[in-house]
Known about the structure:
Chain A has helices spanning 44-51, 74-80, 99-110, 115-128, 144-156, 174-191, 202-208, 226-231, 235-241, 254-266; strands at 6-15, 18-28, 33-37, 59-64, 67-68, 84-87, 162-166, 194-198, 211-216, 219-225. Chain A is α/β, with parallel strands linked by helices. Chain B is elongated.
Amino acid sequence: MNExxxxxxxxxxxxxxxxxxxxxxxxxxxxxxxxxxxxxxxGKTTLLKNIIGLEKPYGGQVxxxxxxxxxxxxxxxxRHFQRVGVLFQNGxxxxxxxVEENVALPLRLHTTLPETIITEMVRMKLGLVNLEHAxxxxxxxxxxxxxxxxxxARAMIMDPEVLFCDEPSxxxxxxxxxxxxxxxxxxxxxxxxxxxxxTHELMSIRTIADKxxxxxxxxxxxxxxxxxxxxxDNPDIQQFFLRKPPGPNVATxxxxxxxxxxxxxxx
Amino acid sequence: xxxLSEPVKSxxxxxxxxxxxxxxxxxxxxxxxxxxxxxxMSAIAPLQREQTAIVLDLAAVTTIDSAGIALLLNxxxxxxxxxxxxxxxxxxxxxxxxxxxxxxxxxxxxxxxDARGFFExxxxxxxxxxxxxxxxxxxxxDCSVETxxxxxxxxxxxxxxxxxxxVLIGSQALPIVALIALLVGLTxxxxxxxxxxxxxxxxxxxxxxxxxxxxxxxPLMTAILVAGRSGSxxxxxxxxxKVSEEVDALQVMGIDPRLYLAAPRVLAIxxxxxxxxxxxxxxxxxxGFIVGVFYVDLAPVSxxxxxxxxLVLKDLISSLLKSMVFAWGIxxxxxxxxxxxxxxxxxxxxxxxxxxxxxxFYIIAMDCIFSIVFYVLI
Lengths: 267, 378
């Protein structure tokens, strides 16, 4: 059996029969914080959706906590996903339920815990994300950051072995973003949780990542430790970390050649 | 003397109870996780009723999850009555850090919502309803005035959009209006003929059906259909635009959403509903005609002559006026619930449903007022 928390082999995936990702292979070890990064439209969210079973890949395997999730039947998959937490980009809280009911939902559906313990656990998790005061509020009454924190509390309520976070600090102020990063590190340290984060926030990547997986041109451009990534001479990585715009450098590219040639001719 | 109970397995954890003169010590061994908590709670509950202090020995707890921590917090927070506490030296660094992580807040817990009294809740409801009603009046006045003003200014009303809405509200509703009006006309005629036959007056079925269709059933049924079909659509469309910030985008671009979004819908609904009403009345009378000719054996010309003779101009005027007022209300209610949405997709559904319910109430209430004004006061 595979010792990795997540092992993706030759994953080809996309939408409407158009592949976005080709033959993606990587592994995440237990207790690791892996950041999946890349420019907009490179397939980060597609990869995440295929890993958590929301989309079916065209080819390849996704082995999550020792099971190929695309081979599981519905019941098995539902049971398996009790060991996994997902923080969606916009929180995905259920609008008809209060924050407390949203966070307690997995416990009420999947466990036989007494109501007092459920209430205590919800309070604990909301305390962890500084949202104890918002238990009675509905998602429509929360700010963007509060929604994300409530969704994180819900993702962690079952003490998952693997936590997926889709753009956790997107849309948050730097202070809240930094708090969220600190929280992710603390959770990992204390509960040895494997955390897979999809983000392109540089500060966040530098704070939390053990390893990074860079996606570009429909495949893996880099897979390795953060320090190696920062020192890599891979142009995609350099562009990303040095925040250079994509495409050739205008000063040395063909456009400048044409401009200079024309100005020389006119002289 | 210490009395040692047999080790009992609760999920993954095993507990042993050691009784001494002054206290009960519950020794836990193994992982304290959510599979162990329900059984462990039921095991400890009877002990809490005893007048002895309970001490939890966690020295042999290997791992703990948040359900386990919740159990400890729950038991120890009731320590005042149950005298439950943790054996000090038994809490490892790992456990201490885990418990501390979850105990770091708690200073700003939410207030209890049920703390409000009965009269406070009634008062709050009253204030909220009054505020909603005032907001509706303001919005309706604004939309009506802006639409009216827009008619006289070049380029202010999007006539293409008015035409689109006219098709959606008017011509696309023709089949359902026709079907319902025909069935209502048939039913009215059958019921009238059956009742009138008792008195030998079944020849009056034409008058009964004609008057009922023109004065009541035509405008009422059309308005209710339009409320369900187009009023809800207006509310849902505007509400979706509101939650996706399209209305805000119009505002910051300096475009008045009341004129841009409301005017085409108001103009279309106010012109289309009276026309649909005339159509519904015609089809309803046709339904009565079928019953009159084939069931009561009236001559076709005689049926039509009796129908025309029974109606007066006031009936038609009141009917058309009524349908215009119904239409204006349906449009305004749809717009109000659309524009007043806050939040997400859930609120769009609520706004749509509420707009239909309120529209139907409005139609019935206005119908009653019109009946009093036209047939009692005038």
